[in-house]
Design goal:
Length: 465
């Protein structure tokens, strides 16, 4: 893929970029290593000042960077502004909490004595330069939720962003520079995917984090494993949205629409498989389909647009193949399942609800990355769990029930990194985020996320002479 800004609403190539050559990559690696040797020795107070300054600058830039994101990958402008605001809040959260999250820990005095020590301390020390391989769908948020904790921990970062959001990638580097971070603390690498392996194998790279597709995750994990380097992976998702008889159906249907089509349906933690108890299936399906069909598809720069284009032409083709396969095998399209009939330019696809899904259909097992929902009818909570877990993915999950016993059963049995009851799956800096099965491993955000890229060091002090 060329490194270029291509407006998905029109298909027009607006700006292209040359990939860095070997010498330019080497220069950035040198600067990252030099910056780490300085940054790792700084105080939490100093790091917090820089992070808060970056948040303030981002607040001031909110409309401009939102328009850049919308231009590059097509999310509705209102949602792009919200993404920028969330990033600034997360920067402030880590500026406020990092010192406490990484405070020295003191083992039980009995264990210290038993080890023969006078005292012992567990200390969180930064690892070094972390390579971040990031996707286009939340082009600012995915980066900041790595960068904020990594920089606050004393690490430095190199960003290999998706090739269709180069202007957003360059903006992030410039944001941290404007905030006062030393040269080399956070840099963007405009490189193709073929250049990632050499960077990852470089001894100056201490670890890597990737958010993206399963094939990309397998590749990075394999290379990092060969080099014995730490990785955190957040990969695909096909999140279940379970609705049981005690649910508030109106609220569940309303949230279900947002959960499916937010970011034009291109979110790993979007609800994708709607698993509904037979007693309330028809009532939910009617409410849900009516709301999906009523969404406004159009120019993402228009404040009234609910669903913009998919980010790439290939992405729309992939989605169409999944829908066509399901319909060919007997699924029923309750709405959508087509491109908008006005033949507009750009890579648009109508919000879609498919019922009658069976395991023989590709969409049952593969991730539908766009505004397409699949609807299942189940007899009871046990069958709901079986259908929910019948997926190679295990990122997030939604469950709508006011029955405490059902909530406990779902909390115990759903194979996912998060279970959200009676509300939409979302990420928050104070809560760990990540998945199970082929959705990846490791955690981002909260204390768990900031500690992922730390050297958890035991300091042992022998008895005094």
């Amino acid at each position: 893929m060329a490194i270029a800004t291509v407006n998905p609403a029109t298909g027009e190539t607006l700006k292209t970029f040359e990939a860095l050559n070997a010498g330019e990559i080497e220069d950035r690696l040198v600067r990252a290593e030099q910056a780490f040797q300085e940054h790792r020795t700084t105080s939490f107070g100093y790091r917090a000042e820089l992070m808060v300054k970056a948040a303030e600058l981002l607040d001031g830039d909110q409309d401009g960077i939102a328009r850049t994101m919308t231009t590059e990958m097509g999310k509705p402008l209102v949602q792009a502004r919200a993404e920028a605001a969330k990033c600034a809040r997360t920067m402030r959260w880590y500026a406020q909490h990092a010192e406490q999250l990484l405070a020295d820990e003191h083992p039980d005095p009995a264990d210290v004595r038993d080890s023969g020590a006078r005292r012992a301390v567990v200390r969180y020390r930064p690892l070094g330069t972390v390579l971040a391989v990031m996707p286009w769908n939340f082009p600012l948020w995915q980066v900041v939720r790595f960068a904020a904790p990594a920089l606050m921990a004393g690490n430095t970062g190199l960003l290999k962003h998706s090739s269709n959001v180069p202007q957003t990638a360059l903006y992030i580097e410039e944001l941290f520079r404007r905030a006062g971070y030393p040269d080399g603390c956070f840099q963007t690498l405009l490189i193709g995917s073929g250049a990632v392996e050499d960077v990852l194998r470089d001894p100056r790279i201490a670890a890597a984090t990737l958010t993206g597709s399963e094939p990309a995750g397998r590749s990075v994990a394999s290379i990092a494993g060969d080099e014995v380097k730490k990785t955190v992976l957040e990969l695909g998702g096909s999140d279940p949205f379970i609705v049981l008889p005690s649910a508030d159906l109106d609220k569940a249907a309303r949230v279900a629409v947002t959960a499916r089509v937010q970011n034009n349906g291109q979110s790993c933690i979007a609800a994708k498989r709607f698993i509904v108890h037979t007693d309330v299936h028809d009532a939910f399906a009617e409410r849900f389909t009516e709301r999906m069909a009523a969404l406004t598809v159009g120019d993402p720069m228009d404040e009234g647009t609910d669903v913009g284009p998919l980010s790439t032409e290939q992405g729309r083709s992939d989605l169409e193949e999944l829908v066509d396969d399901a319909v060919h095998q007997g699924a029923t399209a309750l709405c959508g399942a087509r491109r908008p009939p006005d033949h507009r330019a750009g890579w648009f696809y109508e919000p879609t609800v498919l019922s009658g899904i069976t395991p023989s259909m590709r969409i049952h097992h593969e991730e539908a990355f766009g505004p397409v929902a699949t609807l299942y009818r189940v007899a009871d909570v046990d069958e709901a769990v079986r259908v929910a877990n019948d997926s190679p993915f295990g990122l997030g999950s939604n469950a709508w029930t006011r029955d405490p016993d059902e909530q406990e059963l779902l909390a115990r049995d759903l194979q996912a990194g998060g279970v959200f009851f009676n509300g939409m799956t979302a990420s928050h800096p104070g809560m760990p985020f990540g998945g199970a099965k082929r959705s990846g491993y490791g955690r981002e955000l909260s204390g768990h996320g900031i500690r992922e890229f730390c050297n958890i060091t035991t300091l042992w002090y022998g008895p005094e002479e």
